[in-house]
Specification:
This protein is an alpha/beta fold and 505 residues long. 36% of the residues lie in helices and 17% in strands. It binds flavin-adenine dinucleotide (FAD).
Length: 505
């Protein structure tokens, strides 16, 4: 996205450094499984997101597979001639700032390939190192005795043959758990236990659709209400979920969790039919064919799938010479931004579960200060600061709230930047709705819902005569929720304006 945006704004004088042999990133080349699909909708997940004329490919599925996304990245790079700008199989090993970058200084990069090394000089460096590197691992006592199959649920390491007829214990409750509940249903597992310390909220597909399609971010209470329609099937009260912090009259709600919302419907179906059971707890030890939890519960299973999240790149702080951030600029250097927001949610209003629109704002801002670095100097000291913690290996990853606080300051100070960001914001709802009109999208979700019920029956995971649970979202209830949401936002706006008028502003 960054490279495409630089070209679009007339900058041609850059190179792309990449350890892999092609575009797609660690995310899609290494972390994703062959069964991974985009969880958010394709409409806003396009490398040319910032080009108003370019939309998601029509022949791509709504939730494209890993391979389809890789093809999209490579095709986009080819279209823009980015292959010629890329140095693949090249590792950035060291970054040194020589002199004052705003007064004739430069950045010196030490690079290595498999059989050579070189240095490269540049005047600015936009780092997009990613936040997923290695899977977090836990080794429980008794694993030799267990006798079953233990695997990570990511990094394409699953032997799918082992899932058939198996009783699978998935550990953790993030995005890969959501994906692997689907995979286990598809691969005919008999039973799925999800053992987790925190039952994070998962995002129903129509809620993801709703927030991405909203021109103005949707207030938390309406998002909770939309979640509740699905969670009612499981008897879970979302309002009293630890992720939700609402005021007494529920007119405001902040949702906070350490993973993004895994977007899914099949997880809810599998839980509804008790093919999947979520258990709050922690594994203490394993014994033959059993998982023992710390609270004394025992689960019989023959597969354990670890979905515990990922570590960031533990070498990147040292490579870049990280001492502190001001905003997301390393050591306060206007020409050295880093794109590395942590996974997770902390929001009062929701404009989407897809990351691309958020990246877009940072990309525009990075370019703005590459064009006008002197402007950065004027605001640098006002930006939120984050200093290196030597006990932590990935200081380069910052919280979403850090981005938000930085953006608020920058937009207040630079109206021209704010205007460009405002225009880019409009692209989200426009592109999303163009790719996924309500009726078409709802129809697709409904068909998929029925398809999975049939699949579970065909696989013998649920009885052939099990009742068909209804999809909780309809055109009517979605439109009604949207209308109430619009009215509430309008009332809030009018209240604010009248308060301002009374204060004489
Ligand atoms: C399985 C999975 C599914 C996801 N699904 C969604 C989704 O549905 N919707 C959504 O919005 N987001 C999703 N995400 C989030 C996803 O990570 C981002 O959307 C995006 O792909 C991140 O891209 P990136 O380029 O920032 O990072 P990465 O993909 O991690 O790429 C970083 C690149 O930097 C290179 N690099 C790092 N250090 C060096 C170095 N020293 N020298 C040379 N090269 C280096 C790496 O080789 C890597 O290729 C998903 C993530 C995962 C893991």
């Amino acid at each position: 996205m960054t490279a495409v945006d630089l070209l679009r704004s007339g900058r041609n004088d850059f190179v792309v450094l990449e350890r892999y042999e092609a575009f797609g990133g660690t995310t899609w080349r290494d972390v994703a499984n062959e069964t991974t699909k985009l969880q958010t909708e394709k409409g806003t997940y396009v490398p040319e997101y910032l080009d108003p004329e370019v939309h998601a490919q029509e022949d791509q599925k709504t939730w494209p597979s890993r391979d389809s996304i890789l093809d999209m990245c490579v095709a986009c790079a080819e279209k823009h001639g980015l292959e010629d700008k890329a140095k693949f199989n090249t590792s950035l090993e060291k970054v040194e700032v020589k002199g004052d970058l705003l007064a004739g200084g430069h950045i010196e990069l030490s690079l290595t390939t498999e059989d050579s090394s070189e240095t490269l000089k540049c005047s600015a460096m936009i780092s997009c190192p990613g936040v997923f590197y290695n899977p977090i691992d836990v080794k429980w006592p008794g694993r030799e005795e267990f006798g079953g199959y233990i695997t990570h649920g990511s990094y394409d390491s699953i032997n799918y043959d082992k899932l058939k007829d198996a009783s699978v214990c998935i550990v953790g409750h993030g995005g890969f758990t959501i994906e692997n509940v689907r995979t286990c249903v598809e691969r005919k597992s008999k039973k799925i236990y999800v053992v987790c310390r925190h039952r994070h909220l998962a995002g129903p597909k129509m809620v993801s659709w709703m927030v991405s399609g909203a021109a103005i971010p949707i207030p938390g209470p309406f998002v909770v209400e939309a979640f509740q329609m699905m969670y009612d099937l499981l008897g879970v009260d979302v309002w009293s979920h630890p992720v939700v912090n609402a005021n007494a009259d529920r007119s405001s709600a902040v949702l906070t969790q350490t993973t993004t919302f895994g977007v899914t419907d099949i997880y809810f179906l599998a839980c509804y039919y008790k093919v999947c059971e979520v258990i709050n707890g922690e594994i203490d030890k394993l014994s033959k064919g059993k998982v023992h939890l710390k609270d004394g519960q025992e689960l019989e299973c023959n597969v354990i799938m670890k979905c515990l999240g990922s570590h960031g790149a533990t070498d990147f702080d040292d490579i870049i010479g990280f001492k502190f951030y001001q905003g997301w600029w390393v050591n306060g250097e206007a020409l050295m931004p880093v794109m590395a927001p942590a996974k997770g949610v902390q929001a009062k209003n929701f404009g989407g579960f897809s990351l691309a629109p958020g990246y877009a704002g940072q990309i525009i801002t990075n370019r703005y200060f590459i064009d006008y670095p002197d402007k950065f100097v004027g605001v640098r000291d006002w930006l939120p600061k984050q200093t290196r913690d030597d006990h932590y290996e990935c200081n380069y990853i910052y919280k979403g709230a850090h981005v938000l606080a930085t953006m608020v300051i920058l937009q207040t100070q630079f109206p021209d930047l704010a205007a460009e960001l405002g225009e880019a914001d409009k692209l989200k709802a426009y592109k999303h709705i163009k790719a996924h009109p309500l009726e078409k999208h709802l129809d697709e979700c409904l068909k998929e819902w029925k398809m999975y019920i049939k699949m579970m029956k065909d696989h013998g995971q649920i009885p052939a005569d099990a009742e068909e649970v209804e999809y909780p979202y309809t055109k009517e209830n979605i439109m009604q929720l949207d209308q109430r949401c619009q009215e509430a936002m309008k009332a809030e706006w009018e209240k604010m304006m009248s308060k301002k008028a009374k204060a004489g502003k």
